[in-house]
Amino acid sequence: MVHGIRSGPEVWDPLCRLIAQDEKLAFAEPLQFRYATGVRRLHPLRVFPTVDTVADSFKEYLATEAGEFTQLMLVTHSQGGLVAQRFLARALADGEGRRLARIRRLVMLACPNNGSELLLSLRRNVLGLGHPQERDLRPLNDQVNATLRTVLRDVVHATAVSDRTCPILVNAYAGESDRVVRAASAQSVFPDSAALPGDHSTILKAKDAGHRTFTTLRRLLLTVPGAALAHAPEATRTPELSSLQRTVTNTFSGGRAYGPVIQGDTVHVSFPSVPHFQRPPGDLDADKSGNDDSSGNGHNDWEN
Question: Is there a contact between 60 and 108 (Cβ–Cβ < 8 Å)?
């Protein structure tokens, strides 16, 4: 979980409590990333980090605090979505796409993908001139736009894991009443986008299990590929395929394809043969030469 500007990990507390109370989400362990942000300089000898620096800090956080987890879902609020996207883009630029494979989904709540125009001049005065994080919140920011293009091309529309690509599910949500980040910016060009109740801050304040932000996160957690399954009772699990197993198409004698069969080597399935006259009328795939194995040998072979 990645918070936004002028915020902190505590904003996730309501959602974390609801996750902890839900038996079906017992497999999920929330981790709350913190980074330096605020409205004034921390110290004469200190500065607020840029989004690039925060993204690098997030990289180390995932490698250390989240290092033991094999499946991750990133959940962000506001500027936190820009941090997560910058982290992904920088990792892909460094050829570390394969290391991102454990990230199964990115959820962005009220992320200013196209900037925030609300009180732009006042925001500059409040945050201070030259605030490194405020620059990424401005509309038409070149670096934000370049990051967005990278994420769309090499994450959202990626088809395989490689050094420079890694397909990750991305969901972008706008707040129904949000004047800070408009829906057009929060949803941007992401194909999986929608809206949730609340404004820029109350979108996170889920008071009960019926709050739609929680029910949405719950659904997304339960549909992360393999996340809930990995922690399901042993009797309910479906055995995973080994590296030697593959999907092949088998055909019945006579040339009809009967769909994929999971196997490690050649498989022969025996069953009582079906006489030729029992085939449906007009079955054009029937072997007109009469070689339909209705000789009464009691079996038919499925062939690779």
Answer: no
Distance in angstroms (rounded) separating the CA atoms of residues 147 and 84: 10
CA dihedral angle for residue 202, residue 208, residue 212, residue 217, rounded to 10 degrees: 100
Distance of alpha carbon 213 from alpha carbon 224, whole angstroms: 16
Q: What angle do CA 192, 132, 34 make, to 5 degrees?
A: 65
**How far apart are the two ends of the chain, measured CA to CA in Å?**
48
Q: How far apart are CA 196 and CA 39, in angstroms?
A: 28
Structure confidence by residue, pLDDT tens digits, 196-220 = 999 999 999 999 999 999 999 999 9
Cα separation, 64 vs 34, in Å, equals: 14
Q: Provide DSSP, the chain.
A: -B--TT--GGGGHHHHHHHHH-GGGTT-----B-----SS-SBTTB-PPPHHHHHHHHHHHHHHTTTT-S-EEEEEETHHHHHHHHHHHHHHHTT-GGGGTTEEEEEEES--TT---TTHHHHHHHH-TT-TTGGGGSTT-HHHHHHHHHHIIIIIS--S--SS----EEEEEEETT-SSS-HHHHHTT-SSEEEESS-TTGGG---STT-HHHHHHHHHHHTSTTHHHHTS-GGGPPPPPPTT-EEEEEEETTTEEEEEEEESS----------GGGSPTT-TTS-TTS-S--SS-S---EE-
Confidence grade of residue 100 (pLDDT, cut at 50, 70, 90): very high
The residue-averaged pLDDT of 215-240 equals 67
248: tokens are 């092949």
Kindly report the pTM of this predicted structure. 0.70
Q: How many residues does the chain have?
A: 304
**Confidence tier at 161 by pLDDT (50, 70, 90):** very high
pLDDT of 227 reads 57
Q: Vertex 275, ends 270 and 277: CA angle to 5°?
A: 155
